Amino acid sequence: MAELATDYARLLGPDHPDTLRARHDHACNLGEAGEYVEAARLFAEVAADQARVLGADHSGTLQSRHNHAWSLGQAGEHAEAARLFAEVAADQARVLGADHSDTLQSRQSHAWSLGQAGEHAEAAGLMAEVAADRARVLGADHPDTLRARHSHACNLGQAGGHVEAARLFAEAAADRARVLGADHPDTLQSRNNHAYYLGKW
Hints:
It is built from 10 helices and no strands.
């Protein structure tokens, strides 16, 4: 993909949308290969160029900014990832709407990154809001809703709310068993976390 991006730049010019897309895809491939630091660097560069050429509110620009934050988080830069997710989520809400799937994903990634950075109380509050919005937009049984509920309970427990976390994990486990199946890995994860926090009482 790097060679393709180079060829596009040579034939069409560095600012052509196809060149920018090829650069974005190259960074995606690096991220999927686990090269998160390099992917983050490339996403930051292509996002800046997309903003200059296509506009700050273009969907491609917003996507590259989201992926930049994601790659930083995967590389362990959780606090910076959280900051960038908050910024892109705000812009996505303004451009795409508060209920757009990209906006909801960036909000969930923001909360998740805060939790990874150790800000569990704030992450729990934000994840509860995301879970409620996921349920309203996608439905209570959607896997993304269930995932947000599980993450809310995780951060609540890590913030010291062991009793409430155990209750939420029990509810999430029951709903995941009903929707995904009793043996689904997500169901087992919620059941395991429920048992863990029961032992904290």
